[in-house]
């Protein structure tokens, strides 16, 4: 059979061995789909073997089903799922419409609407002054000027996440790069208002806190939708070229503080001690003054009383004064007075008399007020015959005194 045979191509899939009829296969598929969806199969056309075809070559029913399939696939492409920790930003022809929460969602398919998923749970980190490790320093970012016109190197990191998806997507073109620029600008402002020693030592935490607050204010003003969680200072030190000179200055400052503390400790030890000695001397002087005044007042009062007694009985008072004076003078000596009128042979136990006299000796101020010492000092010494003719006899002394006054 030649290719010019008019019956070639009209044969079915019978025993003739020709290719199957595509129209027949398509009709069978449509019939099965109709049975599947519960519709009646189309009636066979009366005028011939084939249904009317559109200009494209396919039957009208097949074209409709194809359009329906395409529309279903297009509508199904609008389904999407927002994971936990993310937000979906929906736009319609490029204009913001809404922000969807986590869960299954649907929007009008492309090109009418589009959705962009933004991660809210991720904590991003930017590094200023270094990359990856503090050893990889970037001088143009790390070098900063302090308020006292000194240069220091600061390396720090900023951790942040998102708080507004629409601001992060639409309000700025490169929000992450803006965060880096804002961090560098904020810390330069804070360090520029601080002293070098404050930035190097006790003010590191305060500088980090002020930088965090200033960054958040600037980012909110720029509407970046970024929330700054923490600013961490990794390394704060002088530049490498002046490190040796800086170490010398720090050592000198430490020596100054040490010497100042030693001087303060010495002053704290000497000054209270001197004040205590001054107070003690002052109290001793006040005590001596009170003693002298009171003694003078006592002597004057005693003299007044003696004068009154002298005016009443001059002889007795004179004798009493004489005895008191003799007692005060002779009470401190080791001499023994012997009255020779009684006997010429006397046994004098000089060693015992001396010991007795030494035992009864008291200080001079107490002699005048001690009434028992004269009797003890004038104890008679036993004579050889047992009499007590030796010693100081007050009655004989008074007789001798009267004899002298009569002469």
Present the secondary structure layout.
Elements: H1 22-36, H2 60-76, E1 79-82, E2 86-92, E3 95-100, E4 103-106, E5 113-119, E6 124-128, E7 130-131, E8 133-137, H3 139-142, E9 143-145, E10 151-162, H4 165-171, H5 175-192, H6 196-200, H7 204-222, E11 226-237, H8 243-312, H9 314-330, H10 350-360, H11 364-367, H12 373-377, H13 394-406
Antiparallel strand pairs: 1-4, 2-3, 2-5, 6-10, 7-8, 9-10, 10-11
Concise synopsis of the structure shown:
This protein is an alpha+beta fold.
Q: Indicate the mean pLDDT.
A: 75
Largest sheet: 4 strands, antiparallel
Number of strands: 11
Please identify the structural class as seen in this structure.
alpha+beta
User: Beta fraction of the residues?
Assistant: 15-25%
CATH architecture descriptor name of the domain at 124-238: 2-Layer Sandwich
Q: What's the CATH first level of the domain at 124-238?
A: Alpha Beta
What does this structure look like?
The chain is an alpha+beta fold and 407 residues long. Among the domains are: 23-76, no CATH class; 79-119, no CATH class; 124-238, Band 7 domain (Tetrahydropterin Synthase, Chain A, 2-Layer Sandwich); 334-370 and 390-406, no CATH class. It has helices at 22-36, 60-76, 139-142, 165-171, 175-192, 196-200, 204-222, 243-312, 314-330, 350-360, 364-367, 373-377, 394-406; strands at 79-82, 86-92, 95-100, 103-106, 113-119, 124-128, 130-131, 133-137, 143-145, 151-162, 226-237. The strands form 4 sheets. Strands 6, 9, 10 and 11 form a 4-stranded antiparallel beta sheet that branches. α8 packs across α9. The longest helix has 70 residues, at 243-312. It is rod-shaped, with a radius of gyration of 65 Å. Mean pLDDT is 75; it is low at 1-6, 8-17, 47-51 and 362-394.
């Amino acid at each position: 059979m030649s290719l010019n045979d008019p019956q070639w191509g009209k044969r079915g899939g019978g025993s003739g061995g020709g290719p199957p009829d595509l129209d027949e296969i398509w009709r069978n598929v449509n019939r099965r789909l109709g049975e599947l969806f519960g519709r009646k199969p189309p009636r066979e056309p009366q005028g011939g073997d084939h249904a009317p075809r559109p200009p494209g070559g396919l039957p009208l029913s097949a074209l409709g089903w194809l359009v329906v399939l395409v529309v279903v696939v297009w509508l199904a492409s609008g389904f999407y799922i927002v994971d936990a920790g993310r937000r979906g930003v929906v736009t319609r022809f490029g204009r913001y419409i809404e922000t969807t929460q986590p869960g299954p969602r649907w929007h009008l398919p492309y090109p009418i609407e589009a959705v962009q998923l933004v991660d809210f749970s991720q904590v991003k980190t930017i590094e200023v002054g270094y990359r990856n490790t503090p050893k990889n320093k970037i001088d143009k970012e790390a070098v900063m000027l302090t308020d006292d016109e000194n240069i220091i190197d600061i390396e720090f990191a900023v951790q942040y996440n998102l708080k507004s998806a629409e601001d992060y997507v639409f309000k700025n073109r490169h929000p992450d790069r803006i965060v880096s620029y804002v961090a560098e600008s904020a810390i330069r402002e804070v360090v520029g208002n601080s002293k070098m020693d404050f930035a190097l030592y006790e003010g590191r935490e305060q500088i980090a806190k002020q930088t965090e607050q200033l960054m958040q204010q600037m980012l909110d003003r720029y509407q970046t939708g970024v929330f700054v969680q923490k600013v961490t200072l990794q390394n704060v030190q002088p530049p490498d070229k002046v490190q040796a000179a800086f170490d010398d200055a720090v050592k000198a400052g430490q020596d100054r503080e040490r010497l100042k503390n030693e001087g303060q400790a010495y002053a704290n030890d000497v000054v209270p001690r001197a004040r205590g000695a001054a107070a003690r001397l002052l109290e001793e002087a006040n005590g001596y003054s009170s003693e002298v005044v009171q003694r003078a007042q006592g002597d004057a009062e005693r003299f007044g009383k003696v004068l009154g007694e002298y005016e009443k009985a001059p002889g007795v008072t004179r004798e009493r004064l004489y005895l008191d004076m003799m007692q005060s003078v002779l009470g401190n000596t080791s001499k023994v007075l012997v009255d020779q009128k009684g006997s010429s042979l006397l046994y004098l136990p000089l060693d015992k008399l001396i010991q007795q006299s030494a035992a009864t000796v008291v200080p001079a101020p107490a002699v005048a007020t001690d009434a028992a010492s004269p009797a003890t000092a004038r104890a008679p010494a036993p004579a050889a015959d047992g009499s007590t003719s030796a010693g100081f006899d007050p009655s004989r002394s008074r007789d001798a005194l009267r004899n002298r006054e009569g002469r």
